[in-house]
Amino acid sequence: MAMVFVISLPLILFSLMLGIGCYLIGRARGRQDIRTHAQAFGVPIVPPNANANHKDHASLSHDESCSKPNVSDMVGKM
Questions:
Q1: Alpha helices in 1-78 (DSSP H)
Q2: What is the pLDDT of residues 2-33, one digit of tens each?
Q3: How large is the greatest C-alpha to C-alpha distance in the chain, in angstroms?
Q4: Sign of the C-alpha dihedral, residues 58, 63, 65, 67?
Q5: Would you kindly state where each structural domain of the chain is located, as residue ranges?
Q6: Where does residue 22 rank: exposed (0-12), middle (13-18), buried (19+ CB within 10 A)?
Q7: Predicted confidence (pLDDT) per residue in 33-59, tens digit
Q8: If DSSP codes are grouped into helix, strand and coil, which group holds residue 41?
């Protein structure tokens, strides 16, 4: 019984120290990341190669540029 106590106690203490150390390092890195790489929420910027004259996807009809069939066309063929 004493051998189990001698082996398990250092393992438990090592695991606790390792867990606390990883927690503290992760917390420090997270706080540093927030300071240096702050997230900005808002309207996304337009990609540099976007075409301003291109129509919205919502304004396109399925006959114009979409190669996928409408659901009503697939149901009608069954």
A1: 2-36, 71-77
A2: 666 677 888 899 999 999 999 999 999 999 98
A3: 81
A4: positive
A5: 1-38
A6: exposed
A7: 888 887 777 787 788 877 656 555 555
A8: coil
